[in-house]
Amino acid sequence: MLYEATTVWKAGSLVRWRQGWCGHSKPRRSVTVCPRAAVVGIDLGTSNSAVSVVENGTPRVLQNAQGNAAIPSIVGIAQDGKMLVGQAVLDPPEGYATPYSRSQPGDSQPSVVRVLPTDCFHSFKRLMGKSAEEVERDASRLGFSVGQGDRGEAAVYSPVLDDMLTPEELSGWVLQHLKQLAEEQLGEAVTGAVVTVPAHFQQAQQGGTHAAATQAGIPQVQLLQEPVAAALAYGINGGTDGDTVLVFDVGGGTFDISILQAFEGIMEVLGTAGDASLGGNDIDARLADWLLQEAAARGPLPVDAKAWAMAAAEAAKIALATADSAEVALPGGGAPIVLTTECFEELTAGLFQLMANVLEALGEALFVEWAVKPSLAVPGRAAASSTSNGSSTNSGSSSPSSNGSADTSEAGSSRAEGSGSSSGKDRWAPPPRRITQVALVGQVTRLPSVQRFVHRVTGVRPQMGVDPAEAVALGAAIHAGVLLGQVNGVELMDGSYSQDLHSRATGFSGWQP
């Protein structure tokens, strides 16, 4: 779907980085440190969240006691009323068990306190700021009861508490958990935070996020669009020639793309589009269904087969980020199931097509000229097209400087459509834009299949200097330092400084919590 935010924000997203700090040109690595304040950046994600700080001029994402930077956005309520948040749901304390526990206690341990699936809440960011009617389709996929709160808003039902819990409350507990993690490592109370939100979030969703942060006990709260945060993390500034930047964000439960214009450090978000029901979770679901079919063909399935399949699907997906195939052990033993990259691309081709649809919609709205039409770059279809043409394409071989110059029929067709020279489009339409920089966001974008898809569509090799899973959190930390006095060096195009930066850098100038 194409969000309303696709319209161009004239002054809502302009940020300027001063160049030359400490002799460097990359703003992410060259900031001027002011007196320390306990400010943090928070990436509040659908599946995972992260908290980050700027220390000694460098942003970093904090890790929990298990050494993980990605904190699961999950809340579980045990049968004794104890609340488990984040990693504790995956690795519950002694005496507790959850549906996501890595090791399940046997029936011989009746004293174990359990968190039932109906009291284990995840993906509640999808419900933020929406009514019960609006989330009816998503509700059937969540595995817990979704109903109506006191004000008609979407809420979840907890059998243990016998009460409805709003997405703001659940998000508030996750934010409080992240705040406590930061305070333990910083040794002082957090005085403020920048919390990121998707660029398409409307007023009710923004307000819900702000309310959740306030509930978490964060004194000063500012919101920042996720694509702007990602661009800050990658240090994209456009230089003197300017850049048109594609931020390609595949989260756990959402898919978002944004196109930014950057010139000499000034960044403007031209538009954003996405699918609020498409993300890494959907990839896991496709893989899990396939694993269940493969396992069923080899013998009877255990009672917990679905839980096994979901865990195995996620592990296989992660393995494919660094290998051409992944082996999945069967719960009952025997020869493992082998998932190859080719099989993965075949299983997920429909999801790539949905991504292509979003790219084409935003490209049409903003007059973007793709190197290859996105629907022709879908894995499987792209390979077939390449074979039928009898020649190789620019996928995996061209450099950023060759953006848009691939000698293929698909690319030529895309250019013709983008320019309007042969498609009958308005001759007075503005000249087409070409993507010159790509920033990847989200763990899923570590997959070579995703990177090849984006490379083929844009003709540009994605930026690889930042961990995609941490990009938004790192950018939020940089912005937090600016807004709350920890970092100097960011200015707006009119020369004003950080006290005015929030409303104008995020496009939320008209919103009041």
TrEMBL record:
InterPro entries: ATPase_NBD (IPR043129), Heat_shock_70_CS (IPR018181), Hsp_70_fam (IPR013126). Gene3D superfamilies: 3.30.420.40, Actin, Chain A, domain 4 (3.90.640.10). Keywords: ATP-binding, Nucleotide-binding. SUPFAM superfamilies: Actin-like ATPase domain (SSF53067). Residues 381-432 are annotated as: Disordered. GO terms for molecular function: ATP binding; ATP-dependent protein folding chaperone. Coiled coil: none annotated. It comes from the Eukaryota. Pfam families: HSP70 (PF00012). Residues 383-423 have a biased composition (Low complexity). Belongs to the heat shock protein 70 family. This is Uncharacterized protein.
